[in-house]
Design goal:
Largest sheet: 4 strands, antiparallel
Number of helices: 9
Structural class: alpha/beta
Bound molecules: iron/sulfur cluster
Helix content: 25-40%
Number of domains: 2
Number of strands: 9
CATH superfamily of the largest domain: P-loop containing nucleotide triphosphate hydrolases
Strand content: 15-25%
């Protein structure tokens, strides 16, 4: 894996931490319940072993303010914060080392709907102001369409389609991507659950089917799909799809 042309494996652990940081899904589980918020946010700096106490305090105060948490909140324990405030603290911890890349793993799915938009807007502001790149993992297609500039669709551990967001949502090429987009529930009464024709075969990562791994569920599979693995077909400038029939 290359970042800016450099292999991640050539970097030591601390250098990788300065480059890439995570925000996890559940802020009720990702923050140490026995530490104050400001100590949690300071930990990545302390672990580097190169920052003075004054520099750590300055950076922690600055990033807490940047994510919308007051100095008083920094003195609190995680249990004294709401879900949205905890996720702000988790974002502060991820950004305090000024990384280039943040892996956001379903960062809003554990939050109340009313708070989700606030966190998404905060992430968007931070990306713009700090020049960040997000690797944003989500099942929520509306969120993906809102935040992403490029989307990769994964099935059973492989990317099966990749494209710029507009192109992918306007013209999905892989049958799994098409089914995902068709499966979005609408708030219209009486419409029920959409029939996306994927059948009953549930994906099993411990028993990957031969050929195309999507073939037991694919509504347009042909005989070739059951024994021949499709190779990625690249479609410039950003597109890729892995399907014999695409
Ligand atoms: S390769 Fe075959 S089974 Fe796989 S997605 Fe394409 S049509 Fe469906």
């Amino acid at each position: 894996m290359l970042v800016d042309g450099r292999s991640l494996f050539d970097l030591d652990r601390k250098a990788r931490a300065r480059l890439i940081q995570p925000v996890f899904q559940d802020p009720f589980a990702s923050l140490n319940p026995r530490r104050r918020i400001k100590d949690i946010v300071a930990l990545p700096l302390a672990a580097q072993g190169t920052f003075s106490r004054g520099e750590i305090e300055r950076r922690v105060g600055g990033i807490l303010e940047r994510v919308g948490l007051s100095a008083a909140m920094g003195e609190r324990m995680p249990a004294q914060l709401s879900g949205g405030q905890r996720q702000r603290a988790a974002i502060a911890r991820a950004l305090v080392l000024e990384p280039r890349i943040v892996i956001c793993d379903e960062p809003t799915s554990a939050l109340d709907v009313s708070v989700q938009a606030q966190i998404l807007n905060l992430l968007a502001d931070l990306r713009r102001d700090l020049g960040l790149t997000y690797l944003f993992i989500s099942h929520n297609l509306a969120v993906v369409e809102h935040v992403a500039s490029e989307v990769a669709v994964m099935y059973l551990g492989r990317f099966v389609e990749r494209n710029e967001t507009d192109a992918l949502f306007r013209n999905p090429r892989h049958p799994y991507t098409q089914a995902l987009l068709e499966s979005v529930l609408t708030p219209e009464p009486g419409k029920g659950v959409p029939d996306i024709g994927l059948g009953e075969a549930m994906p099993d990562p411990s028993n990957i089917p031969p050929g195309c791994r999507f073939n037991p569920r694919c509504r347009i599979a042909v005989e070739r799909c059951r024994h021949e693995t499709p190779t990625p077909m690249v479609r410039p400038p950003a597109g890729m799809v892995e399907c014999h029939l695409a």
